[in-house]
Structure formats: structure tokens, C-alpha cells
Amino acid sequence: MRFIITALLAFFLTNSYAQTIIKGQVTDPEGNLVPGASVMLANGRTGITSDKGEFIFTDLTPGKYTLHFSFIGYEPAVRTLHVKAGETRVLQVALASSAEQLQHVEIIGRKETGYKNTNSFIGTKTATALKDVPQSISYVTKELMQDQQALRVGEVVKNMSGVSQYTTYDDFMIRGFRTQNNGQVQLLNGLRTITGFWKQPLTNYLERVEVIKGPASALFGNSSPGGIINRVTKKPLTEKRQSLSFSTGSFNTFRGFADFTGPMNESRTLLYRLNLGYENAQSFRDLQFDKNFIIAPSFSFLPGAHTRVNLDVVYNRSMSRLDRGQAVYGNNDIYSVPVSKSLNAANDYLNEDNIMITTSFSHQFNKHIQFNFAYLKTIWDEDLLEHRTANGYAKDSAGRELSTLVEMQVLIRKRKVFSDNVSAYFNFDVSTGAIAHKIVAGFDYAQNKMPWGAAQSVANGYRNNTNTGAGAYNKDMPGRFLYETVNGIKRPVPNVPHFDLTSESPYQLFDMSKYFYSKSNYDATFYNTQGIYVQDQLTLGRFQALLGLRYDRYTDFLNYTKKAEQHVSQDVLLPRIGLVYTLNRHINLYGTYTEGYNPQTASIINNPNAGGPFSPLQSNLVEAGAKSDWFGDRLSVTVSAYRIQLKNVLYKSGDAGNPDLMRQVGRVESKGAEVDVKGQVTPHWFITAAYAYNESAIAESPVAKEIGRQSPGAPKHQGSIWTKYSIGSGKLKGLGIGAGSNFVTERNVDGNDVQTLPAYQVVNAALYYRIDKFQLQFNLNNILNKTYWVGGYDYLRLFPGAPRNWMSSVSYMF
Fold first, then answer.
1. Who is most buried in 385, 578, 703, 733, counting CB within 10 A?
2. Gene3D superfamilies from the xrefs (predicted)?
């Protein structure tokens, strides 16, 4: 009996304390450690390798196990083994570098998670490693947006070097040039689209936001010389992922988001993704609010290994008020009026509908030839009623400004705009001796149309002496106007009541029928652009070259659909040359030269009052830099220096007798240097940092005092940093902290030598706690409660940043 008891005790003690364990280490082919690799057991347990590339699974039952290893840039690996009770098995796994052919069109979603994005299509129209693109490309991934709870592109761009807000609209500065100036051109998945401009849409349906710096006309046709913004939508994944997120915070903000993706059949030939978004938020700005609905489904059909089809739809319904900015006293004291004070009335509204539908198709005929086609349809509808500044201060009877009263006007507008973009091109992967070629040859067509039906009513000016109409005030003809005396000051009676900046209760529900309106219909408009291009990426040993040439033709239809319809065309030939040299496995050096253009629109070219015709805007970029990957390719660093020249720029002449008269300045030059850092230092430590120095000014002009003055809205210095660390083990496992700051130096305001926007620095932080499938998150922004302005046109239209604010969220991943 004693023997039996002893045996039983030994059996139970052995099984209680001698655990069954699988552990090991993951390296690359050269024996370097691979921290951050995913390790998954077939029974659903997952892990991630430590800083030393190590993993461990404990408390296993004896039996057969299959382990899957994967990490970005490496081929997946599988190991199968049997373990006995109490046994510790040790594996040494070497992951082979990935030689997988990347998709030429972004149809399948990005599986990477983190702040680093390895590949992009925007730089070459092929899936190319960013390290191999001879031009600077900045980006922000959805993971960074989520960590910062950044829900507008304006909140996102602070993480990019050389990109800042010009206003709070869809309106940005890139390398000293404003991106809005030509038809509000943006890119969605590499295709030309339009935006509503006034309100930035939510970003919950985006995989990333990226900017190709400098003229991008050689790839995409006419665009801003500073660069162009591309919004990349989330695509379906071959694996099932689902998440729900709810947020609440300052300014009575509530948001709800959903993201579902995965296969729709067992063969995984039909994939889907559905992103939903809802926002209902007030603002630190009086009377301002945003109510948004986002529906963004995406479907991918993969009938075979060589054919892929994708459909993307993004529908955004926005209900809000248009914020024309903050006005301050006419004594140029930027701090004289609270940043909360807007110029709206209680019955103002802005309703916008925006729908973007993209279809794309890719077919690989053989290992050398592939055909790609994409089509994007955009429809934007605007319904607007607004009280806004008339861009001046009120006047007394002698025409003198009253510095605390703002002239007001009312706009009522309805319009609808349609945009179409077709892109078709072939990819050829061939070799000539030792030189490998990736050739792209294609055709683009884009058009923009505003049909008949757009109309606007405007009420402004001062009432005439019979109170039957209104017009601009002329102090030299006092008998034409109606007058009133207020606080002992005689002044003309405004058509729309002035806004009193000193009033503590200025907001009213105005009777719209009391104003005198001038009504106008918008003429129908139409323009199109078409381009033919060829590009070759050559590789010979450590050298790579990119040679591109595009012929582009822009046609504007003056007096569209009328008997006097006239076609005004401009065409241009655009070269692009880039070189890349691989210094070692970590560092690539590059240099590039490219040209761009922006057509001067037909209304200016053929306007006799403007003094035209004028030549197109012509730009060129010279850039050199280095791109590198560190810490097992988890962290990327890009350093660049550039010079951009822009010719044929039009400025207002300032002729009081002819306000339409334009003049050309000789040349605007922008030059500077930038640094971008993205990725992970360790598996649990993420970081992004950016810095930009920019000098952007008129270099040649017949007006001597203009030469050398920094361009409006362009800071000389701008930068940011954000870092996040999560605890991966122990009692505090799942707890994370994030913190960062961004700064912008002083900027000039449009054409005014006195008015400037002060420099600012904002500090933000966040806490995270993840347990099982839930994550709790708390963000605190502008911790020091700084008063600052992100942009502005002048001191009647300033755009302040938000004071201290918080946002909390709970997410469920299943």
C-alpha cells in the first residue's frame, strides 16, 4: 500500500510541476534576430517574438503541434512536432527572405500592422518598396491614426514632414505650395477625384494617407508643384477580422465605427470589407457642429491566380455649418477675440453628399505581361446657407473702418459636380542581358463637369436711400445710401447686419426675407485631361534607374453647351528621371529630376479683363536623399533635400479700376530639407518623427519688395514626434502609453506684410489598456492648453486649433 501511495504522489507531482513547453528563437537567413515575428499554434494560441527573437508556449498538453511563423518581408514558415508530457522542446527557426511577386494594383488589403508601410503604388504605379522609389513619400498608417484618434486628414498631416494645414478645410501646404489652387485635385487609390473642400471627411475607412512630394504630373497629370495627397481605402483581407469602436469626448462628441473583413466563400476567391462610421459632435467654436455618416463597402473577386477584380464604394453624408473662420479687431491684435467666436447665424447649414465608386481589374497574361484598368466616379452635392464675413470691417459715413464691427454677407448656394477618371496601363517585366526592366505604359483620362442647375443668391453691401436695394458703399456719393446713428456714429445701413465682435450674445435666428439678394446661375462647366505615358524601372546590380515621359493634354470648355462654346487646350511633355544606389542592405541613396504643370483655367486665359492669355504654370523638382531600414527592417528613416521652381505664377495686380487684372511674377522657388522616421524600435515600442525646413519665396518679380518674402501659410520649420510603448508581459501586460508633440513656426498671411500667424507647439498623450479582445483608450490633446492657429487667410478669417480636449474609446476585436 505504501508503494502504491508513493507512486500516485510521484505521478501527480510530476504532472503538476513538470510543464510541457515549446520555445525557441527566430532568425533571418544571416542569423540576425527577428523580434516581432508572429507565432501561432494550430489550436489558436498566438505569440510574438521578444527583443531577442524568442518565443515560448507553456502549459501545453502532450501531443502533436503545428506552429506557423510569419513576419513582414519574410516567407511564412511551418514547423510540426510531437511533445511528450513534461518535455521542453526548443526550436531554431530561420525565416527566408520573401521573393513573393507583389500585386500591381492594390486590390488585396495590407496585412502589416504598425506605423511602417513597406510598399506603395503612388510613386511608380507599381508595387514598389518605398526604399526603391527615387522621390520622397510621406505616409501615415491606420494604426497611427487609431493611436492618436486622428479622424481628419488635417489631424493626420502633422505627422508628415513638409505638410501642414493652410486652413481647416481640405486645404494644405506641401513644401511651401498650396495644394488647393487647381481644381481641388486629390487622389483616391491613385485616381484623380474631387473633394467638397469645406469639410474634411472622416478617415475610418482609410488604410493610410500618403503624399508624394514635389510635382507628380509625370504620373498623374496636372497637380500642385509641392506634392499631391493620396487617400488609400481599406481593402478586403483573406483572413477574418472584425472590430467595433465607440468613442466619446470633449465638445459633446460621440463616434461609432465598425470594420468587418474576410472571405465570403470557402475557396477565398470572394472577399469583402465593410467600414461604417457615425459622428455627432459639437465644437469649441460657437454654433459649429458635425454630423457624419460613412458607408464604405469593398469587394475583391479572385477567380484565378492571374485575375483580380475589385469594387470600392465610399459614401459620406455630412450635415454641419460652414466655419469661415475667426475674426479679430481691426487693430491687428490676434488675441483680441476669443477663439470660440464664429460669425455664423443659428439658421445656417451646410449639407454635403459625396460618393466615390471605384472599379479596378488586373489580369496577368504571363509572368512578363500584366494589364491593369481602374475607373473612379465621384459625385459631390452641396446645399449651403451661410452668414459670413464680407472680408472687411464696417464703415462709417466717411468710409472709415469701425474696428470691432465686421461687414457681413449671406450666401445661399446649390450645386452638384461630377468627376470621372479612367486609368489603363500595361506592366512588362523583362530583362535585357543583366538589366531587369519593370516597364509601365498607359493612358489616363479624367474629366470634371458641373451641369446646369447650380445657382447662388448673395446678400451684401449697404442699403440705398429708398431702402429698395443694396450695393457697395461709396463715401463720395453719400446721397445714394440710407444712414443710421449708433453710439453717436453716423454710418450707412448694412444690407446684412454687422457682426459685433464685442457682443457677448451676437448669435441670432435671422429673417432671411429681410435681405436684398442678387441672384445668379452658374454656367455649366466642363474640362478634361488625358495623358499617355511610359516609364521604365531598370535594375543592374546595386543601381536602379527610373525613366519616365508623359504627354498630357488639358482641354477646358469655355461657354460650355452654349452656341459660343470654345475649346481651350494646353499640352505639355513631362520627363522624370530618378536614380537609386544600394549602399548596403540598410541604406539606399537616391536622386531625382521631374517636371510638372498646372494649366491656367480658360476663364483666366480668355478673360480680357485679366490681361491674358497666360501660359501654364510650369514646375521642376531636383531632389536627393537617402532611405534606410533598421532594427530588422522594422524602422525606416528618410532624409531628403530639394529645390522646386515654379514659373508663370499669377498674382492680383491690385488695380482698383480692374479687380480682375492679373500679373505674372517671374519665378517662385522652394527649397529645404526633410527627415521622416516611421516604425518600431522593439516589438512593443512604436515611433514616428518628422522635421522639415523650408524656404519658399518669390525669386524673380518686377515688384522688388516681394522678392525673398516667405510664401503665405508656409512655415520655415515644422516637426512632430509621437511614440507608443506597450507592456508585453507580467501583471501590467496590455497597458500602454503614448505621447508626442508637434510644432510649426511663424507663418505669413495672404499678401499682408503686417499680419502673421504665431508659432505654436502642442503636446498630446494617450493611455491604452488591452485585455483579451477589448481595448480601452484615452487621449488628451493640447495638454498645456495653448492658444494657436493652424492657418488663415487674414485677420478676418483665422482658423484656431482646439483648446485642451479629451477623447475616450472602447474597441472590441473579434
1. 578
2. Carboxypeptidase-like, regulatory domain, TonB-dependent receptor, beta-barrel domain, TonB-dependent receptor, plug domain
